[in-house]
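Practice problem 4.
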């Protein structure tokens, strides 16, 4: 049997003993993802899917649950549609996570989801999983599928250090080196880091107001608006003006005049 590849990811992983589920919807989601995003984004989403499936039986809070794997796979495959290269899919005023959630929900509905078991609750769960995929402090306390989506995506960044301490070079115990190699060989990481910087800095440039209160803003502060330092000071000035603490405390002080 052929090994998984970006164009045929549904074959079994011999070492990791996982298989990305193929359904008409997950197949269509992969095609849609491939059509509208960069190759490095496609591979990131596929790696994240594989890592999520690998982690589920190893995490006690999820191992015994009957999870909605079609929802999981669809959510992870489409979680970064907010990075789409097709600009007509994107908004000018929403965080990229919300854009992704909106695109994914619309896609499932267009695929006939409402007639195929995708009721309002399931569609909302898909939306939540994508909208919250960068917000672990919320995602991990919602439905299990939302938490697993977050962890699978996080695992593509932490890799073999998932559950360990990357700062000290301490490997985790959730993903072995050989399993990691198997997954990144199937779905190579080539170009992802550079593309990530460019995408995030592009968001800081094209819709900065959506980045000031998220981790995306850190890219603008560090790399400017072109990924190479351009307009870094201008972005920092905008970011400083948008800080919430001065506005919150200042508004309390101003309103105090009407409380006497």
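Answer key:
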């Amino acid at each position: 049997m052929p090994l998984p590849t970006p164009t045929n990811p549904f074959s079994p992983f011999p070492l990791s003993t996982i298989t990305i589920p193929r359904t008409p919807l997950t197949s269509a989601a992969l095609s849609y993802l491939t059509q509208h995003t960069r190759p490095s984004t496609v591979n990131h989403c596929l790696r994240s899917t594989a890592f999520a499936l690998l982690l589920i039986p190893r995490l006690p809070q999820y191992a015994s649950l009957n999870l909605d794997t079609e929802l999981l796979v669809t959510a992870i495959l489409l979680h970064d549609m907010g990075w789409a290269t097709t600009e007509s899919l994107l908004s000018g005023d929403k965080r990229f996570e919300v854009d992704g959630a909106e695109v994914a929900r619309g896609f499932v509905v267009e695929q006939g989801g409402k007639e195929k078991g995708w009721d309002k609750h399931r569609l909302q769960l898909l939306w939540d999983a994508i909208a919250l995929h960068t917000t672990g402090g919320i995602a991990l306390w919602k439905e299990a599928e939302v938490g697993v989506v977050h962890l699978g995506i996080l695992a593509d960044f932490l890799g073999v250090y998932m559950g360990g301490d990357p700062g000290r070079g301490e490997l985790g115990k959730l993903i072995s080196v050989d399993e990691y190699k198997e997954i990144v060989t199937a779905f190579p990481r080539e170009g992802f880091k550079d593309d990530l910087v460019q995408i995030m800095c592009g968001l800081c440039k094209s819709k900065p107001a959506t980045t000031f209160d998220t981790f995306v803003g850190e890219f603008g502060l560090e790399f400017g608006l072109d990924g190479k330092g351009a307009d870094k000071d201008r972005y920092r000035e905008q970011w400083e003006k948008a800080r919430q603490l001065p506005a919150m405390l200042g508004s309390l002080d101003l309103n105090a005049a009407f409380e006497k």
